[in-house]
Protein: Zinc-binding dehydrogenase
Organism: Streptomyces toxytricini
Amino acid sequence: MPVRALVVDPSAPEAVRAADVPDPVPGPGQVLVDVSHVSLNRGDLNDARSGRIPAGAVLGSDAAGVVVRAAADGTGPTAGTRVVALTGGAFAERIAVDAAALAEVPAELDPARAAALPVAGVAALRSLRAAGLAPGKRVLVTGASGGVGRYAVQLAARAGAHVIASVGSAPRREGLARAGADEVLIGLEGLHRPVDIVIDGVGGPQLVAAWNLLAPGGSLQSVGWASGESAVFPPYATVGPAKSLTSFVIDGAAGADLAVLAGLAAEGALTVDIGWQGTWDRFEEAATALRDRRINGKAVLTPAPQP
Ligand SMILES: NC(=O)c1ccc[n+]([C@@H]2O[C@H](COP(=O)([O-])OP(=O)(O)OC[C@H]3O[C@@H](n4cnc5c(N)ncnc54)[C@H](OP(=O)(O)O)[C@@H]3O)[C@@H](O)[C@H]2O)c1
């Protein structure tokens, strides 16, 4: 039986349309999951247009649902377990997922919030870890109103860092002080003291400005480039006491980190802000809102009923 999915179609608005795809056939180390919720990432919108995901292939990376068949090799959760996964081709009613790419969803966490964790949460967790997050460090998070940003602010604050959240406009400050930001700035206005860590999801001139604020020994993690603007470094900007600008990408199975994030969310130590929720026949609406920077936090979609 085919399953409904959102697939890449370069001729469609937002380069995505609903379609029937073949029922997935799991490999020996994969479980079959019936998907109840998915979340949309800015990267999905880029993937749909860039050709990185071929036409006709299923889009998406973030899904939550219930295991309907355990892995044949005995790894991973049993049938009936609620799970969250970070996996390619997530936007389908049923998916085959590597057992190492998912985590069990604790009873206290609802599936919509679980689905909002994978890409944004794992990017925040791993980039902070790579930057050497520690108590007392001054951490600047750009694009703090977005998916990665909101998680990065909370995780850094939880670790005892001094967190500076940067947003694009006053309305986008909403909820960030409550999330643990010690300072919430529009752009980098008023920030003069050096920072030890930058988690940057914006790129462009703001990345250059953030680099200039980075203290010797500091780490700037270039996680994303939501601005789409070029970054021009003035002469000698990269000459001086050692500090690093590191490229970042989520690499390798995310199951262990998903378990950490789901555990924190379940115990109320990590708030999952869902700024848009609806069925995936409203994909265009969600994509436009995300692109237009009108979603505070994450967009979560549920499979639409069969036509
Ligand atoms: N490397 C990886 O593995 C990885 C993983 C996850 C995400 N990413 C990338 O990281 C970036 C952030 O991802 P996300 O999921 O947090 O995205 P998001 O939810 O859309 O948030 C992006 C934030 O960037 C800010 N921004 C500043 N200038 C912008 C502009 N010109 N256009 C749009 N947004 C602008 C917006 O904040 P204001 O509205 O307050 O300005 C927005 O909240 C994206 O580039 C994404 O592709 C990479």
